[in-house]
Amino acid sequence: MALLNDITDPKSLEDANASVSLLDDNDSVAVAQAASAGIARLEAIRFRALAQLNRHRDGARSVTQEVAFALSLVDSYAGEMVAAADALTTRLPRTLNLMDQGKVSGFGTMKVAAATAWLSDENALAADALLEERLPGKNSEQIRKAASYAATTVDPEGADKRSEHHRGGRRLALRQGETGVASIEIEDGPTEKVTAAYTRIDREARALKTGGETRTLDQLRADVALDLLLGGQGGVSERTEVFLYMDLFTYLGLNDDPAELAGHGHLPAALARHIATGPNTVLRRIVTDPLSGQVLDLGRDRYRPTTGLGDYVRVRDRECRRPGVRHEALSINVEVKDLHHCYVAS
């Protein structure tokens, strides 16, 4: 306690605050960065203290209420903090060490803890090792995506089961607000459909934003969404698209590398294959550099995959035709490792 009181001594902080008004642009940014790093280090101490409390209470449920009361937090956020504290001090030591170095914020590390919560202790440690070099300098959304990708990579089978479980829990929630307003939300909806729905709503809202339109884009999106739900036409178009990126090995079921849905992030292989084989899916070839991921060629042709495409390739090739690779039928083209596809699911 004495050490913490010295670090956060009000007199020292008062002097620091007084000097801020004398800073130029560059120094202002530097001080803000230094303050953020210092906050992260203090948050690491707080997580360790919460983990220690949880151990003293043997993980009792009452810890959440105790923390919520002591730190003036709502119960849900207090529970997330306690869970993150336990994970950081046991399963995610490298991520906690990044906090000690001031490289990742407490909010960012909570994203890591949440994204890896379903992993076994062994797999969580593996994901933690994968993330050590990827988290510094990233914002919270980038951290969430990186942690989700790492979790899916170390346990692809578990990721498929978890995705199926979450999608099975989809529901529509209505929340009444104050003074004549309410909210409607689709919880845990299929990401490809939710993303496509938002893309359509956003596009049609923007089409309505003409010179004489006084509503904001947020208001227009809400109005278009409600109009569509109530049977109206919404805006000017009935078609929308989402983009899914996956390698051909994964598409054919010959490996389980995660795919990526634009605007959402990484998806487990089984879910990506489910989306990619939908009745309205269209394929477009994109050739990328296997190391950097840089796009080398963007195919102009689009085509719909046939039901027998995977069977045809497996029967034709028996194993990958790329020199040095020994797997069953990895691709239609020889250079499969450099080939990715963009799927447009309407």
Structure notes:
The chain has 346 residues and is α+β, with helices and mostly antiparallel strands. Helix content is 53%, strand content 14%. It is built from 15 helices and eight strands. A six-stranded antiparallel sheet has the order 5-4-3-8-6-7. Strands 1-2 form a two-stranded antiparallel ribbon. Mean pLDDT is 81; it is low at 316-346.
Biggest sheet details: 6 strands, antiparallel
Strand content: 5-15%
Residues in helix, %:
40-55%
Total DSSP E strands: 8
Q: What's the total helix number?
A: 15
Class by alpha and beta content: alpha+beta
Mean pLDDT equals 81
Q: Span from first to last CA? A: 59 Å
Q: What would you report as the Rg, rounded to the nearest angstrom?
A: 25 Å
Give, in order, the helices and strands: HHHHHHHHHHEEHHEHEEHEEHE
The outline comes out as globular
What low-confidence regions span 5 or more consecutive residues with pLDDT below 50?
316-346
